[in-house]
Amino acid sequence: MSSRTKESIPLSVLDCVLYGAAKAVEYLGPRGERLLCKVGDGILDYCIKAGYIQPSGDMRQTLGLITNFFIENGYASGFDFKDDGGQATLTFRDWRYLSLMKKLYGEQCQLLACPLCVAELAVFRANGLDMQGISERILTDGTVVRSARLTPLTNPDQVVLVPSSTDMSNVKASWTPADRMGLPAFEAVEYGLVQGFDYLGAQAQRLLDNVGAGIIKFLQDEFRISFPDDPSKTIDNLASFFAANELADEIKSQMSPSDVRIFFKKYRYASVLRRLLDEGISLVSCPFTLAVRASLRQRGLLIGGVQWKFVGGQDVSLNMSLLRVAEQQFDEANVASLMEL
Amino acid sequence: MELQPDAFATVSESLESLEKPVVLAMIDPIRYQDAVVGLLRYFTSKVSRGIYVSLNKPYAVLAKSFEKSGISANSLFFVDGITNVSGVQEDSDHACLGSSVDLSSLCIATSKAVSRFPEDKFLVLDSLSTLLIYNESKVVAKFAHLFTEKMRRWGTSGILLTVDMNAERDVVSQLAPFCDKVVKL
Questions:
Q1: Among A80, A264, B50, B105, which one is most buried in terms of CB atoms within 10 A?
Q2: Does B163 sit within 8 Å of A339, measured CB to CB?
Q3: Distance from CA of A112 to the nearest CA of B (A)
Q4: Which residues contact A327 (CB under 8 A, 6 or more apart)?
Q5: Are A7 and A139 part of one and the same domain?
Q6: What are phi and psi of A133, to 5 degrees?
Q7: How large is the C-alpha radius of gyration of chain B?
Q8: For residue A128, pLDDT beyond 60
Q9: Prediction ipTM score
């Protein structure tokens, strides 16, 4: 099934998530790429489940299909892969990752969070191969040429990234609503993020919440979103941004001392959410929700229970109960006495 | 599964000289499953009974995955704080407390599980990272401190698991002095 005819979404909504993901695993150094590669596994899984690509035992065919999926979704206008005796040359035309790459490189983060790349890396690794970055150059027309060595996957932990000498002075690092990509690619990344970390169990939400902290930084840096001390105003600001950037047609929020209620009209995350819930996965990767969780935590509020409800089509309501850090108590002495055998 | 022997070897080397060790295991997220299996393999080779407190994955999922890795789930009793149940459900191999269990109830259920088995045993808490989703780090540190204290009083060895993340370092630094060893896996 082709993904070409589907809706599109501003690139900023995807890039804030990719940025958050890269920053959340940056502390692992180059090995953080291994976790991003797990997101790649999830992207592939989503594309197969949604019928966008057919499962295949043939590595080259799978690489072709996943590449085609991202090209159909406008993530690049062209992509070539040449393997010359273990030396691979990858050419990206109109690669939509460039702005984010410039931002990450500018922050000395060499991790490659490009969804096309992590999905391809996942295909290579699933076939016992590894790709080790050698060099990267950007041609005057914006085409990116990356060289890498294809080697047998002997140590899954080992990751070699491209050295940090790429000249990115000609790359623009800004996002406008006109910079768009296909919704299926956004959905694949959102699903991949959850599915990729799901092996960690419930604690994966902790990693996803760190993605949320990265999303906040991205929005502050690139869109000057303000995060006032009043958490309800912060949620309003986030709701305005994400509604303007088409995560939903409308995002309404209501905050009380005990909970936060959100209503999403025509929520573009709805199909991912439905699939995750159907699969019994309760982790959340929606960028707005992650940013809300992270901003509340920064203000001494934690999220307890989370309840999603489909109220028709793509309209979804979310209820998150609040726990106040300052009010949390654990009476060590009393509990200790109750634990006596 | 390729990393299992490494995790087992690291654990064996780190803990061999310690009797009934109380360990804080900081686990690289990339190798979490393998590291847990390595730890269990080590402890089940020393002690026949284990009590596994899971806040991360339902006991049924864990039991299946441990069996697949060659660890007999029969040697483990699960205290499950994640499976959705309406009230506390107990059986010969598990106690399900419900997914919104509070820390005090978790402590009491664990001590009850410990008292079920008179033989030598070890205790696993999986994990501090999950507790940190819903609790402030100071509260989690207090809770874990009580756990380590009780393990010593009960004469059990034990492992507190945490994902090695920057955000977890605060709790780790508070807890490290109360453990015999901090192992990075």
A1: A264
A2: no
A3: 17
A4: none
A5: yes
A6: -65, 140
A7: 15
A8: yes
A9: 0.89
- Least Cα separation, residue A298 to chain B (angstroms): 12
Give the CA distances from residue B180 to residues A243, B19, B160, B161, B176, in Å, rounded to whole numbers and listed in that order.
51, 10, 11, 14, 8
The 10s digit of each residue's pLDDT in B48-96 is 999 999 999 999 999 999 999 999 999 999 999 999 888 889 999 999 9
Residues A10, A56 within the same domain: yes
Judge if A148 and A52 occupy the same domain.
yes
Which residue range forms the structural domain that includes residue A167?
1-210
What pTM value is reported for the model?
A: 0.92
Co-location of A269 and A315 in the same domain = yes
Domains of chain A: total: 2
pLDDT band, very low/low/confident/very high, at A5 (cuts 50, 70, 90): low
Q: Say yes or no: A152 and A257 in one domain.
A: no
Q: Is residue A274 part of a domain?
A: yes
Cβ–Cβ gap A332/B142 under 8 Å: yes
Q: Which residues are B183's β-sheet partners?
A: B25
Identity (one letter) of the amino acid at A239? Answer: A
* Strand ranges for chain B from DSSP E: 22-27, 49-54, 76-80, 89-90, 94-96, 121-126, 157-163, 181-184
pLDDT over 70 percentage in chain A: 98
Residue B5 has pLDDT above 60, yes or no: no
pLDDT over 60 (residue B2) = no
- All residues of chain B having their beta carbon less than 8 Å from the beta carbon of residue A329 are 139
- Closest residue to B56, CB basis, from A35, A203, A338: A203
Structure tokens at B134: 């819903």
Helix (H) or strand (E) holding A29: none
Q: CA-to-CA distance for A113 and A272, rounded, in angstroms?
A: 20
The pLDDT assigned to B4 comes to 42
Terminal CA-CA length for chain A: 62
Supply the pLDDT for residue A4. 64
Q: Verify whether the Cβ–Cβ distance B146 to A207 is below 8 Å.
A: no
pLDDT digits (tens, 9 = 90+) for B101-158: 889 999 999 999 999 999 999 999 999 999 999 898 889 999 999 999 999 999 999 9
- Say which amino acid occupies A26: E
Superfamily of the domain at B26-156+175-184: P-loop containing nucleotide triphosphate hydrolases (3.40.50.300)
A26 and A60 in a single domain? The answer is yes
Q: In terms of domains, do A187 and A314 share one?
A: no
Residues A89 and A187 in one domain: yes
Which of A144, A175, A210 is the C-terminal boundary of a domain? A210
Structure-block tokens of residue B9: 């070897």
Is A218 among the domain residues?
no
Does residue A298 lie within any of the structural domains?
Answer: yes
Give the pLDDT band (50/70/90) at residue A153: confident
